[in-house]
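Fig. S4 source data, part A: sequence.
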Amino acid sequence: MKLKFGLLARIIVAILLAVVLGNLMPEPFVRVFATFNGLFGNFLNFVVPLIIIAFIAPGIAQLGKGSGKLLGLATFFAYFSTLVAGFLAFFVARNVLPNFISNEGAESMANPEEFLAQAFFKVEMIPLMDVMAALIFAFIVGIGMAAINSDVMKRGFEEFNSIISKVISFVIIPLLPFHIFGIFLNMTFGGQVAKILSVFAVVFLLIIVMHWVMLIIQFTTAGALNKKNPFTLIKAMLPAYFTALGTQSSAAAIPITLRQAQQAGASEKVSSFTVPLFATIHLSGSTITLVTCSLGVMMMNGMDISFTSYAGFIFMLGVTMIAAPGVPGGAVVAALGLLQSMLGFDETMVALMIALYLAQDSFGTATNVTGDGALTMIVDRFDNKEK
């Protein structure tokens, strides 16, 4: 049997190698990777607005051709569930993580130039537009395509979507381990890596706990509306959870999710429509991960965390998650623009965020997929009530 060396395995190997080599290699070696990190980071900044346009515009156009009220119900509950997940993660992480993440060393982390090796050279890659402009443009074009039923523009944006998907799958995702290797190599060289790795374990455990709390909330709601035991419903959806955990893909788990949702009691008509839709637009597990990881990174850097700034970030994240690329790590790639524009993340913080996120991406995907079953039952209940 051929052994699959997946993205998570490559990330782990990259971090371990960086921790070992960072204490052994001379500064010129570290500066080579610092140069690569600068180039790759600038390329990411350039591509992020294109990702937003490529995925949100055709996504909105596609949503405009649904089954009326059923589409509206599904979209509302998916977005609402994502918001609940985001605010749950914010309040829990803001109160729990400070007990494990001290502010010692925050001053040195706040100014990376003082301890990181510098790049040999830099190449500016100015984005065609900022993140907010890309979001507004995507909404205008997407709603417009749905309103006028423009097949020509829709086909053009779908092809643009395919191009950007190729860039993500064949350029960004394969290079991420090297980017993370360079960042951890530099941080080891600068003496910061021990503190950061200790935070990884705490954040990881907290995220897994919140994933299951969110699932209990979702299935308790579905059970109450349908007069069923929520834990019986969770048990019915466990095959979908483990399928997503193994495949790290919501799309690959659709057949199992669909079968288990129907076994749990959802109608064939509603589940056949909502399960594939939720696989694209419902990412409550990924949202918990993104919010918790970003809080952990900000606390490590001694940054101020205000509810008002994070509330805006969570509302925008809910929209961005609807169009996140369906590849491993796609959600964090889609969220990079918001992290930089709304939370002030720099290149080092972005790399830490990517590493933290990818370390448990499969658990977030499994939570998304399992929650799809609960939301399907909720939509089914409201659809039957209307009839």
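Fig. S4 source data, part B ends here. The chain is about 80% helix and 0% strand.
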